[in-house]
Amino acid sequence: MDAKLSHEEFVKKAVVSLRKEGYKGIHTVYSGFNEAFKKYFEGENPVEATNKLATEGKIVIRPVKGGVMLYLPEEAPGGSDASQALKKMGLD
After folding, report:
1. 68 forms bridges with which residues in the sheet?
2. Per-residue model confidence (pLDDT) at position 59
3. Burial code of 47-80, b = ≥16 C-beta within 10 A, e = fewer?
């Protein structure tokens, strides 16, 4: 294998490559991301790495049933659920 990707490069490549058609993000468990991350980075913790990238603004994490969704910042769903609901109701 050539030089390893950084955590950021790996995660961004995974989001683009593993997402299903019509979706902008990937589920860390159901897409196989967590296992692929552990294999590629020889047992490193994907949760720690993705949380660090989210803190740095490199990716966006949204909690969902059974895990989390990972998004590229420019493709992440905007605002909180409450904000979206109020906006749809015309009460923003």
Report:
1. 63
2. 96
3. eebbeebbeeeebbbeeeeebbbbbbeeebeeee
The CA-to-CA distance between both ends of the chain, in Å, stands at: 51
Q: What is the pLDDT of residues 80-89, one digit of tens each?
A: 566 667 777 8
Residues 6 or more apart whose CB falls under 8 angstroms from that of 69 comprise 25, 26, 27, 28, 61, 62, 63
In order, the DSSP letters of 62-82 are EEETTEEEEE-GGGSPPS-HH
Question: Which pLDDT does position 33 carry in this prediction?
Answer: 98
Task: Indicate the pTM of the whole model.
Answer: 0.81
25 burial level (CB within 10 Å; 0-12, 13-18, 19+): buried
Query: 């692929």: which residue's tokens?
Result: 36
Find the radius of gyration of the CA atoms of the chain. 15
- Rounded Cα distance between 75 and 59, Å, is 10
